[in-house]
Amino acid sequence: xxxxxxxxxxxxxxxxxxxxxxxxxxxxxxxxxxxxxxxxxxxxxxxxxxxxxxxxxxxxxxxxxxxxxxxxxxxxxxxxxxxxxxxxxxxxxxxxxxxxxxxxxxxxxxxxxxxxxxxxxxxxxxxxxxxxxxxxxxxxxxxxxxxxxxxxxxxxxxxxxxxxxxxxxxxxxxxxxxxxxxxxxxxxxxx
Length: 191
Known about the structure:
Shape: globular
Largest sheet: 5 strands, antiparallel
Low-confidence stretches: none
Distance between the termini: 23 Å
Strand order of the largest sheet: 1-2-3-6-7
Strand content: 15-25%
Number of strands: 8
Oligomer: single chain
């Protein structure tokens, strides 16, 4: 099981690299990685187990966060609004890529956080309000889907990890709590 000490921390070079695309069929090692990433998210969202293993809760996890430079993300996003509920936000995406996005942006009202960043970096993190993502599942089946709101924020955060970006790269250092433009709106949840 992945524990707190296994998480790659800010400053490690793998977090700033472009992760490698995976090919199919996935290796046993890659399938185990997918399992371990999902297991971490499941345990992290169980209050008793998270306390027992001293791990921080998460809704998404990218392979570079455990020093694996691979294009794989795990998602376990609980309690979405009915119009945003999607079983794909409870699983693993391989080689995910944003292929289109809205002009409108959104930010979480409390800012974002990250399992790989221990210190608090306050500020609005502008994200696209709607995105279209292509990805493969663990069997190599290819999908193209649209996401909006909180689901879109979580996906952009995790896909950023695959491209060597961290959430605070999007925060304006001179005006961290200023919305970047009149097409940006706040979402009340905290990531």
